[in-house]
Write a structure and sequence with these properties.
- By secondary structure, the chain is an alpha/beta fold.
- It contains ten helices and 15 strands.
- A seven-stranded mixed sheet has the order 2-4-3-5-6-8-14, with helices on both faces. Strands 10-9-11-12-13-15 form a six-stranded mixed sheet, sandwiched between helices. A two-stranded antiparallel sheet has the order 1-7.
Length: 359
C-alpha cells in the first residue's frame, strides 16, 4: 500500500460545523465495493469518556476501534491495520474492536456506534472515510477519529495518518526501471483513488530516473478484492512484455503474484505490508508501512491527552516507511543499481530528494 493497499450534506452537517473554532480540510471520497459489515470486540471492559463539549483524557480502560474497508485476511492493507490494533491491545492493555465496512452506507453507522459506546479512539483505515468522518466527529467531541491515508483534519478530534508510501514506491520504480530487460513495467491498482495513483506516480518517476525509455502500463481492476481480475490484468501486461509488476490493490493484488509465478520470468513488488513471503520466488521487495508502531504511538497520545488534530506523516526519514528486500532475491539487483538505490534512499532521508505525494 499501502495500501491504498489506500483508499472519501447529511442531517448532521449543520450541527457538526456549528462548533466554535472548527477548521477543516476535505477531499472527494470513493467507497470500496463489497457486502455487509461485520464486527468483533475483544479484551472486554468499560471505558469512560466525558459527554461534555470539552475533550478529556480517558478515565477508564482505553477503548480503541478500527474500521477497515475490506477483510483482514488480505495479507496487505487491512491485515496491516489489524496487526496495528492487536499491538495496541498488547502494549497498552486497551479494549479493542474491529468492524469491516465494505459499503459506504456502513461507514457512518459504525462510527456512531463506537461513539455511542464511548470509544476513545476510532481509526478509519482508508482515504474513503475522510468526508464522513468530518460529518460524524463533531457529534462525539470526546472520541478521537483518525483517517489513515486521507487528507482531512478538523479540530478538536479529527486527524489523519499520512503514510508517505511514495518514498518507497519511488525506490521500487528505480529497481524496476534499472533491471527491466524489455523496457516495459506495470502497475495494478484496486480503485482509482488519489492514494493509489500517487504511489504509481512515484513508481513511474523512480523508474524514469534511471531509465527514461521505460514504459509503464497501468490498470485499475475496479475493487480491492477481485483476485481473478488482477491476475488477468497482470497476464495482459506480461503479454505486452512487462517483466516487473507492482500492485496497490489490497487482496486483489494476490492475483498479480499468481500470474507472476506462472510466468516464471517476471518479478513483482508488494505494497503496504511485507508481502515477500506470499510469492518468495518472484517478489523482489515490498514497500512497507510500519503501521503497528504508528497505531501504538497514536493510542498513547489519546491515552495521555496529547492528541492533536493534525496530519501525522509516516515516511522513510522517520523509519516508518521502508523498502524491505527479499533476501533470497536481493542478489539479482546489479551492484551498480543497488548503489544508486542506496544513494537515493540516503537523499530521501536527508531531505535532498523530495518525493511528491499527489493526494
Amino acid at each position: 500500500m499501502q495500501r491504498l493497499r489506500f483508499l472519501l450534506g447529511l442531517p448532521f452537517l449543520v450541527a457538526g460545523f456549528a462548533l466554535a473554532g472548527c477548521s477543516q480540510t476535505s477531499a472527494p471520497t470513493s467507497a470500496r465495493s463489497g457486502s455487509s459489515s461485520a464486527s468483533t470486540t475483544s479484551n472486554g471492559g468499560s471505558g469512560n469518556a466525558s459527554t461534555s463539549s470539552k475533550a478529556t483524557a480517558p478515565t477508564g480502560k482505553l477503548k480503541v476501534a478500527l474500521l477497515t474497508p475490506g477483510d483482514i485476511n488480505d495479507q496487505g492493507w487491512n491485515q496491516l491495520a489489524y496487526e496495528g490494533l492487536q499491538a495496541v491491545q498488547k502494549e497498552l492493555g486497551a479494549e479493542v474492536a474491529h468492524q469491516v465496512t465494505k459499503n459506504a452506507s456502513d461507514q457512518q453507522p459504525a462510527m456512531r456506534d463506537f461513539g455511542d459506546k464511548k470509544f476513545n479512539l476510532v481509526i478509519c483505515h482508508g482515504f474513503e472515510y475522510g468526508k464522513r468522518v468530518l460529518e460524524v466527529a463533531p457529534q462525539y467531541p470526546d472520541t478521537k477519529f483518525v483517517v489513515v491515508g486521507g487528507n482531512v483534519k478538523q479540530a478538536p478530534n479529527v486527524a489523519t495518518i499520512v503514510p508517505k508510501l511514495e518514498e518507497a514506491t519511488y525506490l521500487l520504480g528505480m529497481a524496476a526501471g534499472g533491471m527491466t530487460k524489455t523496457n516495459v513495467i506495470g502497475a495494478i491498482g484496486g480503485m482509482k483513488l488519489p492514494v493509489i495513483t500517487s504511489t504509481f506516480d512515484a513508481f513511474t518517476d523512480g523508474a524514469k530516473s534511471v531509465n527514461p525509455k521505460v514504459a509503464i502500463l497501468t490498470n485499475y481492476v475496479g475493487n480491492f478484492e477481485d483476485q481473478n481480475a488482477a491476475k488477468e490484468s497482470a497476464k495482459t501486461m506480461i503479454a505486452q512484455k512487462a517483466d516487473f509488476l507492482f500492485h496497490n490493490a489490497d487482496q486483489a493484488g494476490k492475483g498479480m503474484f499468481n500470474a507472476a509465478e506462472e510466468a516464471q520470468n517476471v518479478l513483482v513488488f508488494g505494497s503496504n505490508r511485507n508481502q515477500n513471503s506470499i510469492a518468495p520466488n518472484v517478489c523482489l521487495a515490498s514497500a512497507v508501512i510500519e503501521m503497528p508502531k504508528a497505531f501504538v504511538e497514536l493510542a498513547k497520545s489519546v491515552q495521555n491527552n496529547k492528541f492533536t488534530a493534525d496530519f501525522i506523516e509516516l515516511n522513510v526519514p522517520k523509519g516508518t516507511v521502508s523498502v524491505q528486500w527479499n533476501a533470497a532475491l536481493k542478489a539479482k539487483v546489479p551492484p551498480a543499481l543497488m548503489q544508486k538505490l542506496t544513494a537515493a534512499e540516503k537523499d530521501i532521508k536527508s531531505g535532498k530528494l523530495k518525493i511528491q505525494r499527489h493526494v
